[in-house]
């Protein structure tokens, strides 16, 4: 996947996290590599972690989440 596509996918995941009301997106970092998304940072609960993963997985082009 090209650098541009990785950047676009990263931005799409960041946008999805921002629109997820149960997630504090400002505390979560995102990297993308060939459709694999890595979420990093801090969440306040397991429920918020699962919500962030679910929001990221709904983005078209995401093949996996680390």
Cα shape: elongated
* N-to-C SSE string, H for helix and E for strand: HEEHE
Q: What summary fits the major beta sheet?
A: 3 strands, mixed
Total helical elements: 2
How many strand elements? 3
C-alpha Rg (nearest Å): 11 Å
Distance between the termini: 17 Å
Level of helix content? 40-55%
Mean pLDDT: 94
Trace the largest sheet across and list its strands. 1-2-3
Structural class: alpha+beta
Assembly level: single chain
Report the sheet-strand fraction: 15-25%
- Which runs of at least 5 residues are low in confidence (pLDDT < 50)? none
Keywords:
elongated; 2 helices; 66 residues; alpha+beta
Topology:
Blueprint: H1 3-18, E1 28-33, E2 36-41, H2 46-57, E3 64-65
Parallel strand pairs: 2-3
Antiparallel strand pairs: 1-2
Helix pairs in contact: 1-2
Structure explained in plain terms:
- This protein has a three-stranded mixed sheet.
- The protein has 66 residues and is of the alpha+beta class.
- The chain is built from two helices and three strands.
- The chain has helices at 3-18, 46-57, and strands at 28-33, 36-41, 64-65.
- Helix 1 crosses helix 2.
- The two termini are 17 Å apart.
- The radius of gyration is 11 Å and the shape is elongated.
Short description:
The protein has about 70 residues and is α+β, with helices and mostly antiparallel strands. The protein has 2 helices and 3 strands, in the order H-E-E-H-E. It has a 3-stranded mixed sheet with strand order 1-2-3.
